[in-house]
Amino acid sequence: MKPRKAAKIAVIGAGMAGLTAAQKLLANGAQVTLIEKSHGPGGRASTVERDHFYLNQGPHALYKGGAAYGILNQLNITPAGAIPAPKRSLAIFQGDLLDLPLDAASTMATKLLSITDKIEWGFLMGNLAKSNLNSLQNVSLSQWLQSTVKSERVQELFTAMVRLSTYCNNPQKISAAAAIQQLLLAQQEGVLYLDHGWQSLVDSMLQLIRHQAQESQEDQDGQERKTRLSEIYGAEVTAIVPCKNEPGLNQSLGQLEITINGSWQNFDAVILAIPPKQVSKLLSLDAGATSLAATLDNILPSHAACLDVCLRKLTNNENTFALGIDQPLYYSVHSTTAKLAEDNHALIHLAVYLPEGEKGSEKHEHLLLELLDKMQPGWQEELVYKRFLPNMTASFGTPLAADNGANGLSNVTLPVVNLPDQVFVCGDWVGRGHLLVDAAMSSAVAAAEAAIARARQRAYAATNAT
Ligand SMILES: Cc1cc2nc3c(=O)[nH]c(=O)nc-3n(C[C@H](O)[C@H](O)[C@H](O)COP(=O)(O)OP(=O)(O)OC[C@H]3O[C@@H](n4cnc5c(N)ncnc54)[C@H](O)[C@@H]3O)c2cc1C
What is the CATH number of the domain that holds 378? Predict the structure, then answer.
């Protein structure tokens, strides 16, 4: 019997979603072409090294109990890093620095809450895990808080904790179920700041897939070190169209052709690990698919304005973490937890969680510099480097109550008029029940599994047709 030809699958986008999809495809024997428009892999998970500081693109924390950590563990990748454990976490309220009530001791100590607020906060957090999440998928966070919590201060505090764990500053729209689930994830197992930044994840993943692509080929023919992975960087994919129908084959199972830097290549399936607006543009969805185009173009992202600061040393060693309660602010010294700088040097991430429709601007930079003055007075004397990233997309999708808690699209299958059903999507805007990189990597696994199944169906139909 002739050996089955490996399915030829293109993955467009080499962020953590694209790399995860490529890994799963290679593990299932596929031949993979990974196409990335930047000059290297990693996307938003890439880290820049500057003067021995490792700068992620804004503050990044990996949820230890999350899907991404689980997927990495299954691949024998153990992310190196540590759980932040600040001596004192601060709440910024009306310009004052108060204790952030994260446990019994800080709740007792804080001046942020009155005695009755403290009782209500303790009760709320103590019973959070008992929430009936199914019934809260289509309820917004604000609706849920108004019906559950009496104290406005407690509502504000809870909303701030949700901003911290989801990156979403939209309590009127985010699903209460998704918000609670993410907060529980953060509370129960904590988060990790990663040594040498998130690039360490990108590098481990890349090393694994390159190795996997070679090993399997060697197993099959026993001699040549060929690879089933082709990586193309700095390349723009400009179109995806159906191949001319193969004789005897149903149009819905035909191959796809894509243009890579102006030349055409055929594939059995394509996985798009890119932002939703890029998907809509790439598939030229205006003709005959207006509702899908509208859906993709209207998926709600979550943005943040970020200030990344490298100092020779901290001017105040106590102030390592603060969260804005009445303003959507974040401040954390990541280098006291993970290996992100040499010796006593300090890497600080600050951010404003931007509300829907607001663009990051100088106003936000000033706000963050004021916060830095408060936390590290005289920081200018110790400054090595800083950068302001005004408009970062922390997530391309938001789990909306109006969408019953789905992140943007609930499914990895993209039914496109005039294209065979072999186009799949993944990213932090796809799926439900996971957010951020957890959504990106879990949807990538699902997209790869669907693509493999579809390519096998295609191969079977093609064999029977000849
Ligand atoms: C400020 C900030 C903070 C964050 N904090 C956290 C956090 O604390 N915890 C967490 O879990 N997640 C966090 N995230 C989110 C996390 O970085 C992403 O979910 C994760 O990196 C997965 O990304 P992705 O692969 O889906 O998308 P991306 O990393 O955006 O990758 C998409 C890739 O596709 C490429 N591309 C786009 N269009 C095309 C095209 N037409 N052809 C070819 N290539 C194309 C892009 O260049 C890019 O490399 C944060 C993100 C930001 C920006």
Answer: 3.30.519.10
pLDDT digit string (tens) for 271-298? 999 999 999 888 876 555 678 888 899 9
Query: Which of 342, 363, 395 is the last residue before a domain boundary?
Result: 395
pLDDT digits (tens, 9 = 90+) for 374-393: 999 999 999 999 999 999 99
Structural domain of 178: 114-189
Distance 400 CA to ligand 1 centre (A): 20
* 211 and 255 inside one domain: yes
pLDDT attached to residue 351: 98
Do 324 and 269 lie in one domain? The reply is: no
Q: Let me know whether 308 and 249 are in one domain.
A: no
Average confidence (pLDDT) over 417-422 = 71
CA distances from 159 to 145, 220, 256, 257, 383 (A): 9, 55, 45, 46, 33
Domain count, the chain: 3
Asked if 114 contacts 122 with a C-beta cutoff of 8 angstroms, the reply is no
The answer on 179 and 139 residing in a single domain is yes
Dist CA 279 CA 169 (whole Å): 25
Question: Confidence class of residue 1 from pLDDT cuts 50, 70 and 90?
Answer: very low
3-state secondary structure 219-265: HHHCCCCCCCEEEEECCCEEEEEECCCCCCCCHHHCCEEEEECCEEE
Domain at 278, CATH number: 3.50.50.60
**Domain termination residue (choose one: 377, 395, 413):** 395
To test the pocket of ligand 1, the residue of 12, 19, 44 to mutate (highest count of ligand atoms within 8 Å of its CB) is 44
CA angle 325–164–51, rounded 5-degree value: 110
| Widest distance between CA atoms in the chain | 78
| Rounded Cα–Cα distance for residues 424 and 427 (Å) | 11
191 φ/ψ angles, rounded to the nearest 5 degrees: -120, 160
Is the CB of 113 inside a 6 Å radius of any atom of ligand 1?
no
For residue range 185-215, what is the model confidence (pLDDT) as tens digits? 999 999 999 999 999 999 999 999 999 998 6
Q: 275 with 426: CB under 8 angstroms?
A: no
Distance 361 CA to ligand 1 centre (A): 21
* Per-residue model confidence (pLDDT) at position 319: 97
- The reply to whether 353 and 221 lie within a common domain is no
Pocket of ligand 1 contains residue 303 by CB under 6 Å:
no
105 lies in a domain? Answer: no
pLDDT exceeds 90 at position 37? yes
Is residue 234 in some structural domain? Answer: yes
Does residue 281 sit in the same domain as residue 307? no
| 3 part of a folded domain | no
